[in-house]
Specification:
2 domains; globular; 17 strands; Nucleotidyltransferase, domain 5; 7-stranded antiparallel sheet; single chain; 11 helices; alpha+beta
């Protein structure tokens, strides 16, 4: 059953004497590489020993968190990609790597947002270098509220270096209590798209809808794709990677804003269940599409959008379910007649009853009344049948 809490992160810039972070980050990078090497050489039992040897000044607790939260997931992801036939090299850390710490390594001082830190082991010459450092939030409204309203005090944090700002920051992982489950009986449907609209939300029961356009993001993607091709031909790998990172940040920010708009719309109209299309396998089904269409489809972050939306809705007590998208764009939401010629681009006109509407809005209406096949459980979408059996 879904739990009643969600995880949120609160990020703060670190101000003060942070010289010792350079040493810790470099040794964490060396420890990560040593742990991955031990795994690839089938020496899993030696991972911890090799990592400690590569990072002699780092405490056992920090090394253990690095192994659990970074080395093991990275190695598992590499194996999964290789089994699926995808190119997957051995993960490598650069000169510096994030420092994963538990609450035993720091102490927060109430609203003053100061903390003292101990990441070096008793065997290190740096042991005992506990410093009082001040924190300033990325977003004063959001990050401070998330940290102060945590149901359970943060247990894990990550210290990393921002190359753009040339500053160290710390990200606390907090646990927030969800709002009580709503039981209004109002169901909404979302039709996702990658051309005209990123999403069309419809609440047929109360005749309310919300249109969210892609705005300039598709134009930006096309320009970035053309520019990356030029940079690749010129052999400028670092510039290509920088541009990819910038595009990913822009897309993530854009999706966050659209999700916030949808959540606000649902909360305003008392929606208690949101239904989305189950788009798993859509890229494989589109193997015979044209090159440009496949490129646009591959850059369409529907899974990221759905997971982010489901997580945010859950915080407000709203269920999120998946439905089979078959014929949702061809079926008339009034009489139920299914025919391919009902839809013509962005327009829908039923050949049987004459009903006319925006094609995406008609599809969202069909999604809202379709039978659910899976439900978000806080981590992933789980089949409804499996949830019923578990209950």
């Amino acid at each position: 059953m879904p739990s009643e809490t969600v995880f949120r992160s609160a990020s703060f810039w670190i101000d003060g004497d942070v010289a010792h972070f350079d040493t810790a980050a470099q040794q964490c990078a060396a420890a990560f590489n040593a742990g991955i090497l031990a795994r690839t050489e089938r020496r899993s039992n030696d991972s911890m020993k090799d990592m400690q040897a590569a990072a002699p000044d780092i405490s056992y607790e920090v090394i253990a968190q690095l192994l659990r939260r970074k080395v093991q997931p990275s190695y598992k992801a590499m194996l999964t990609n290789r089994k699926q036939g995808k190119p997957a090299g051995i993960p490598r850390a650069g000169r510096a790597y994030p420092i994963i710490i538990r609450d035993r390594c720091w102490s927060l001082d109430g609203d003053a947002l100061t903390f003292s830190l101990q990441i070096f082991g008793t065997h290190s010459r740096l042991y005992g270098s506990r410093r009082q450092l001040s924190l300033s939030p990325f977003d004063p409204d959001y990050d401070t509220r998330i940290l102060q309203s945590a149901t359970i005090p943060p247990k894990v944090a990550e210290i990393a270096y921002s190359k753009r700002k040339q500053k160290w920051f710390i990200r606390f992982v907090t646990e927030q209590r969800c709002a009580p489950r709503m039981n209004t009986g109002i169901v909404a449907g979302i039709d996702l798209g990658f051309r005209r609209h990123i999403a069309v939300v419809s609440v047929p029961g109360i005749r309310k809808c919300l249109f969210l356009r892609w705005s300039d993001i598709r134009h930006r993607d096309r320009n970035d794709h053309a520019r990356r091709k030029q940079l690749q031909k010129a052999g400028k790998k670092r510039a290509v990677r920088t541009r990819q990172d910038k595009t990913a940040r822009y897309r993530k920010d854009y999706i966050s804003k659209q999700v916030a708009a949808i959540v606000a719309f649902c909360a305003e109209h008392g929606v208690d269940t949101m239904r989305l299309e189950d788009l798993s396998g859509i890229r494989e089904r589109a193997a015979d599409w044209g090159r440009d269409m496949k490129r646009e489809l591959n850059s369409w972050p529907f899974a990221q959008f759905q997971a982010h939306l489901a997580d945010k809705l859950r915080e407000y007590g709203i269920h999120t379910q998946l439905v089979n998208p078959r014929h949702t764009s061809q079926r008339c939401s009034v009489c139920g007649h299914v025919e391919r010629s009902n839809r013509n681009g962005g327009d829908f006109r039923c050949k049987q009853c004459g009903y006319q509407n925006n094609a995406d809005l008609n599809a969202a209406n069909n999604i809202a009344v379709a039978d659910a096949t899976a439900e978000w459980d806080g981590r992933e979408f789980t089949a409804i049948d499996s949830i019923a059996e578990a209950a």
